[in-house]
Amino acid sequence: MADEFRPEHIIVTGGAGFIGSNFVHWVVDHQPGVHVTVLDALTYAGNRENLAGIPEDRMTFVHGDICDAALLDEIVPGADAIVHFAAESHNDNSIADPTPFVRTNVEGTYQLLEAARKHGVRFHHISTDEVYGDLALDDPARFTEETPYRPSSPYSSTKASSDMLARAWFRTYGVPVTISNCSNNYGPRQHIEKFIPRQITNILCGIRPKLYGDGLNVRDWIHTEDHSSAVWAILTRGVPGETYLIGADGERNNIDVLRAILERMGKGADDFDWVRDRPGHDRRYAIDSTKLRRELGWQPAHTDFAEGLDDTIAWYRDNEDWWRPAKEAVEARYAAQGQ
Ligand code: NAD
Ligand code: DAU
Questions:
Q1: Which end of the chain has fewer CB within 10 Å, C or N?
Q2: Which of the listed residues 11, 12, 13, 19 should we mutate to test ligand 1's pocket, taking the one with most ligand atoms within 8 A of CB?
Q3: Nearest ligand, CA of residue 130?
């Protein structure tokens, strides 16, 4: 473990998105001395409402693009660290049009790394387990920090590219970079294009849930609050130049997750439609987070998936105003793709 790094002012990119906003709320709730500047372009996935309730003296919101080097020169000096969540994050969108993924995920990360180098700021890069490709269903292996990169989709290949840039900026320029690769998050404020909120809001709208392929693909679910506490542990106690995998032993196949949602929402086990599979669909993700737990003493708090799912369903039931405006367009887009 490195000497503890105690930032007083952090820049959180993508802080109006799902995981970024949950992280900002977590920091405001758990780290009283820290001021957060959120930099977010408010794309279709960003929502200013996600930061509602945060006191003005704890957060500054900057509406802007991570590719805007001049803007970064204005806001990065004076900060102690950049925590970089901003990305185009949805695999299906990346298959339909990779263009914004290359721009935001690769060029945007490059611009932020350059700003961190120029202004002497620490950098934590948020990445994904998808950079490691996939595992077979019957393989006892899980991903570790040593697993070779083998991304499958346009999304995951741009995230892998951004990881490589972050590693190079540490080795070549000595920028104090840490990287985390996390598994699938769930929880409040996740965009309804993603699997769990799509199915919950489908049921709330009277639409049948949609399952890709044979439904046996496995994802390793972690509550987004556990992702936040892990990122804080890595930012403050992680060793520059190191990568840490974040996961909470939450492997489940898609059909089991969908049936758990159906049961909790009073529907039958077969009340869903099988739809066209995702091209290149990764079969299984699984994280071995031993390094993070042993070296930094992190542990997940939300270990009861059923309870986390109940809370998540309740959040979407209670916050229809938040998701309803996007629902029709999201479903029309999926329908056009046969999904
Ligand atoms: P999201 O799509 O919900 O939010 C992305 C945010 O980034 C939005 O607020 C959007 O407005 C902002 N953004 C996009 N392009 C931008 C740009 N050019 N400039 C500034 N802001 C921009 O994403 P998410 O699911 O919260 O994921 C956040 C991060 O976590 C991503 O880096 C993603 O790769 C990573 N990650 C996600 C998961 C998951 O399960 N969702 C798991 C592991 C890692
Ligand atoms: O593993 C981390 C990754 O998890 C993150 O890097 C990504 O940003 C995040 O979007 C997520 O990627 P996935 O592709 O795994 O998540 P998604 O919610 O899109 O899909 C989860 C699984 O559910 C996947 O196997 C595809 C399937 N699926 C998805 C949708 C939207 C369905 O069966 N039906 C659906 O309607």
A1: N
A2: 19
A3: 2
